[in-house]
Amino acid sequence: MRVIDHAPHGWFLLEEDGALFLDVNCSHSFVSYNFMLRLDAQERSAYESEGRAFINRLATAVQDSGPNSRSSRFYERNLSGTYSDEVTKTIEDWRASS
């Protein structure tokens, strides 16, 4: 896994074996948490044509949806628990080398 791009205090875009993942720092009132999803084919196509602007919009949509709520359209896509340790190490290594 490797970091492709990031917005400080907002999100990290990561890649692993050709798959793209977005790790969003969500904040709702006094609760903050990370929410990670794999970009689907449509999102990946939008990223390839629009770049960072699309990722900013997607991260905002994730944040604004309250993704840990079952009513969020992103709820079922949560991969945070699956990749938590790997993402943390990847980001730590990336920061150390930057």
Compose a concise summary of this entry.
By secondary structure, the protein is α+β, with helices and mostly antiparallel strands. It has three helices and four strands. The longest helix is centred in the C-terminal third of the chain and has 18 residues, at 80-97.
Q: What does this molecule look like?
A:
- The chain has about 100 residues and is an alpha+beta fold.
- It has one domain (about 1-95).
- It has three helices and four strands; from the N terminus they run E-E-E-E-H-H-H.
- It has a four-stranded antiparallel beta sheet, with helices on both faces.
- A hairpin with a 2-residue loop joins strand 2 (about 10-15) and strand 3.
- Helix 1 (about 40-50) packs across helix 2.
- The longest helix has 18 residues, at about 80-95.
- The relative contact order is 0.19.
- The mean pLDDT is about 95.
